[in-house]
Amino acid sequence: MPSNQHIVERALERIDAGYVFPEKTAAVEAAMWCGYFFRDDQVHLKDIYDRRTDTTRQFWTAGHLPAPRYADRPVYVLTSGTTFSASEGIAYTLQAHGRAVVVGETTRGGAHPTERHAITEHILVTVPTARTVNPLTGANWEGVGVVPDVPVPAERALAEAIGAAARRVEMPPR
């Protein structure tokens, strides 16, 4: 007979937002990941405004995904102080849409796409070239990080998420 913890773990979806996406494909991969947690295939996830070209690229959930959607399960995103960039974007997006509870530590705060420029053979400068904007909040996590709904040390985040799921904690209103 499965344990209560095993049953709870199977009933929820948890995302460890510590994964680092490849830089060139991060925005697209993060949007695809988010798509699995919405019923609708037309959810506006974010915009990225590119200062150099004065253009805005919109990111929406995909109509077709190669695996089933998890729209009916509670979602808990686990974060730490080292969670960064596209991984933060997943946490921020799902939190802003009321689709996930973020559990753990405030993240590092890297929302703006950047480019690296060599100053010398040994010095690189990283410069923001674009701005990420969430369509619901009109903001992002740059410089402030994603603030968890349930703040706990990262090493306790999984246990806390499992406990919250067992208690069937409601997602906080946005």
From TrEMBL:
<protein>
    <recommendedName>
        <fullName>Tail specific protease domain-containing protein</fullName>
    </recommendedName>
</protein>
<dbReference type="Pfam" id="PF03572">
    <property type="entry name" value="Peptidase_S41"/>
</dbReference>
<dbReference type="GO" id="GO:0008236">
    <property type="term" value="F:serine-type peptidase activity"/>
</dbReference>
<dbReference type="InterPro" id="IPR029045">
    <property type="entry name" value="ClpP/crotonase-like_dom_sf"/>
</dbReference>
<dbReference type="InterPro" id="IPR005151">
    <property type="entry name" value="Tail-specific_protease"/>
</dbReference>
<feature type="domain" description="Tail specific protease">
    <location>
        <begin position="2"/>
        <end position="153"/>
    </location>
</feature>
<dbReference type="GO" id="GO:0006508">
    <property type="term" value="P:proteolysis"/>
</dbReference>
